[in-house]
């Protein structure tokens, strides 16, 4: 095949993909000058996909076993900080309990992983707090 015939030959997308992959593996640079037939000008290139901007992280609310007014909330800021926490879950109850979470547990909860922890034993009882 002569060089002029080679340059005028149209190939399909699959053939181009295979040839491109082989050329990349061999270290050859590929330049694409147009799309379709040689008679129409190339259009604008593809629009790049914008990088999403992360929004605020939502608070995580724990479900509390045998609850009588306690409330367990990890704020979005605490999840973003990804540090260990000691939550006071008093809520509207007449006494308090504490739930201790490691940094790894806070990260897991922030990632949507179900995590259950027992509270401190105060006032003669404790609770299990489950996030997600």
Protein structure class: alpha+beta
Q: What's the tally of helices? A: 4
Tell me the strand percentage band.
15-25%
Order of helices and strands: HHEEHEEHEE
Low-confidence stretches: none
Strand order of the largest sheet: 2-1-6-5
Shape: rod-shaped
Largest sheet: 4 strands, antiparallel
The helix content is: 25-40%
How many runs of DSSP E, i.e. beta strands?
A: 6
Written overview of the protein:
The protein has 132 residues and is of the alpha+beta class. It has a domain at 60-131. The chain has helices spanning 3-8, 13-26, 76-81, 103-110; strands at residues 60-64, 72-74, 85-88, 98-101, 115-118, 128-131. The protein has a four-stranded antiparallel beta sheet. It has a two-stranded antiparallel ribbon with strand order 3-4. β1 (60-64) and β2 form a beta hairpin. The mean pLDDT is 82.
List the helices and strands and how they pair.
Layout: H1 3-8, H2 13-26, E1 60-64, E2 72-74, H3 76-81, E3 85-88, E4 98-101, H4 103-110, E5 115-118, E6 128-131
Antiparallel strand pairs: 1-2, 1-6, 3-4, 5-6
What is the structure about, briefly put?
By secondary structure, the chain is of the alpha+beta class. The chain has helices at residues 3-8, 13-26, 76-81, 103-110, and strands at 60-64, 72-74, 85-88, 98-101, 115-118, 128-131. It has a four-stranded antiparallel beta sheet with strand order 2-1-6-5. It has a two-stranded antiparallel sheet with strand order 3-4.
